[in-house]
Every structure is written in structure tokens, then in C-alpha cells.
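3.2 Worked example (two chains)
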Amino acid sequence: MKDGEKEMSFLEHLEELRWHIIRSILAIIIFMVIAFIFKGFIFGTVVLGPRTPDFITNRLLCEFGAYLSELLKRQVDLCINTGNWELINIKMSGQITTHITAAIVAGLILAFPVILWEFWQFFKPALKDNEARYAKGAVFAASMLFFVGVLFGYFVLAPLSIHFLSNYQIDPTVSNQINVRSYIGTLTSICLATGLVFELPIVAFFLTKVGIVTPQFMRKYRKHSIVVIFILSAIITPPDVFSQTLVAIPLLLLYEVSILISARVMKKKDKEYNEFMKDNNSETANTA
């Protein structure tokens, strides 16, 4: 609480939090309605895009395979999602509920910066001036990391996962008839998972700020973190080594960035502590 501001009661804090939550929900609803209206673009281009041969990732992989084939003088087939398989709906209300679900997910993703901003505005008065100034870019950084993670999941992981899962068979006599809700659930879970995982540097920043982790701690358990990262990569990707490695590499880089951020926060905290002790000692000496 800053000087000159009236201290709020517990009920007043709850009322303030309620309005921040309401504004966050309104932002989600607004973006959800927009996504619901633009059904053709959301489904025809965005949602169903990764399963088509013309999708940019599928096309680039196929072109890269052709380049390698010419360079190595041997066939290198990297083309994915070339099959003309159909999605099916098995419930009467399946398509409308799928439409609503996809719109909600789109609204949640697009409203993510607004949600962060609202919660930042709620917690900001509790911070000291130097803390608020030091963390003022946190909302922007967290939003950018989230969107980068979502885009990474959408353009890199989703096409690979869709290709692997749609073509995997336990026996040639068992054919895949994929429900549209299952397809969308896989796509959204990948994008949301990578978006949240890419928040690792922000999490490291705040955990260091409150004294839970230190750069020394993160360096000490770097080997353990590598194992955890590969386990996490295995969870959010199809069970093949290439996809897991593809996810693990940026996560390992983010972990190293998190160590640098943690070290910077600790350096700032040590500097503030030394200045505080210096001022305190000066006051004690003057009093004596």
C-alpha cells in the first residue's frame, strides 16, 4: 500500500477482485463472440489448417524433403498430412457444441493479455514503488511468451502430432475415424500447453522475487530439470523422439534464460539490501 492511499478492508479487496474477474470474463466473452461469428476463418483456416497438405509447415517440410532428396541423391520423404481423411461428428448437437467450445478457447487465448493486465492491476497496489517499476513489463513479457508458445504449438507441434496420431494403427484392420471434437481437443491442448510452458521465465522471475528459488538452486538441479523437461515434452507431444526433442530444445533454452533472469533479480535484491544496510548503519552512526 502506497503512502497517502487508504487501506482497504478484506471485503473491499474481495469487491475489487470481483470486478477484475468480471472484466476478464467480459473480455473472454467479447473475443469468444468475435470468434463465433467468424466461423469460416476460425474453422476453415485456423482449426482445420494443420491437417491439410497446403498448411505452411506441411508444405515447407515437403519442400525441404525434396531439397534433401536432390542434394543427397536419395529419396527423403518429409511430407506429412498428405492423406485426404475426413473428420466425423457422431452427435446431433456435436457441431454446434464444437463451434461453441472452439470459440471459448479462441476467446481465452485472445483475452489472455487482458486477464494478465486485470490481475496485475489488482496486485500492483500491494507492491512497493521499486518492485512495481521493476516488474512493469511483466504483463507484456508474459503475454508475448504465451503467444509465442501458442504459435510454436500450432505451427510446429500440431501438424506433427496430427500426422502421427491420424496415421498410427495398432493393426491394419483397424481404421481411424476421427471425431471432430477429439481433433479440436488435441489441437487446443497442444497450443494451450505450450503457451503455458513458455511462461517459465516469468515464473522464475516471481519465484526468485519471493525468495523460493535462486540461480544457484536452478544451476544445481539443471540435470534434474533436463529429465523433467523431456518428461513434460513426452506428455504434450506424440510418442516419437523427434517431436519430443523439438519441444525440449526451446524449453531447455527457456530454462537457461530463466537462470539469467533469476540471477539478475538476485543481483538487484542484493544491491537493494546492501543500500538499505548502508543507510541503516549511517543512521545508527549519526545517532551515536
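3.2.1 Second chain
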Amino acid sequence: MSSVALKFPWPRKDTHDDDPYWDFFIKTPPADLTNTVTELIRNAPAGNIFPTLADIHTPEITTQHVKELARYFGAELVGIAKLETTTNPDGYPFAILCAVRAEYDPRVSPGIGGQVPVQNGLFITFVLSAWIRELGFRASVEPHLSAATLAAQAGLGTLNAEGRFVTPQFGARVYIADAICTDLPLAADG
């Protein structure tokens, strides 16, 4: 039996620098936002809070469960920040921060492909906050909070001179999803 090397008729490349369709996929915003998953998730109503509080563990173990569940949903990094009551009109004591790796910066790549980290972050925060509400605790995704500042406070990374969030694991190629504010008893990081 002879072994024959399989040859593809096209050269292998790991970049999409000369592909005009890829550039369009990454950089061109959709003509109709209803063609995006991000709008669907952002506009989905939050569910009700279960009327009976679940019997949960200590804040440290609950924090571990929250982080494991967020990682299961796709978060690369997860941190808990303590919220100040003066800047928090709803009285939430904690914010959960989830980060995903971003090959393209969603702030400068508005195309459907460039928004993949945003979609992933929205999915994670939507499902995680729904799970917390099922436990009987309040949880809401808060886009008005500075997620990058809270993520730095939680010890996930730092803000560089330009105010861009940077992590040791991914550098600046990271996207911080909107913060989940909750009254679930947690142990803050950082």
C-alpha cells in the first residue's frame, strides 16, 4: 500500500487580508439591524424573578458556580465587582463581568463578523441573568455601566493609556460584555 499526500488545489492561508468578502463581513454594518442576533437578544424581555429564594451555598461557592456557568456558556474570563451604592440607584451590591476573546475590535468592526464577540457576550449575560432570576434573585444586564472599568476593578485586566481594556491572556483582543447587576450573594474579586 502506498501513501499519497493529499494536495488541495488552492494555497493555504491563515489571513483574510486580500479577501474583499471577508472585509465586507467584518467591517460593513448590516443594512437592517433585524438581520442581527444582537438586536434580537438586546430587545428580548427579561423574565420574572422566581418568587421563592433558592437555598444557595456560601457567597464563595455561589461565586464559583456563577463563574463555572459563565465559562460553560462561553466566557473566557469572569469576575465579580462590588458596586458602590451611590452610583447604583437599584441597590445591586454586585456586578458580574464576562469577557470573550475578540479577533476584531467590535468598536471599529461593525459588520456581522466583527460583532461576533458582542453576540457571544449578549448570549452569556442573557442566559446567566435568567438563571439568577430562576434562583429567586434580581439580575439585570446594565449596558449603561462601564463594563471595562468594572472588569478592571474585578481584577480581569487593566485599562491602558487609551482607556482600552487589556488582559494578560489576550492583550487588547478582548470584549467585555455588559455587566450583570445582581443581589445574588457573591464574593467580589480584585
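3.3 Remarks
Residues 116-134 form the longest helix (19 residues).
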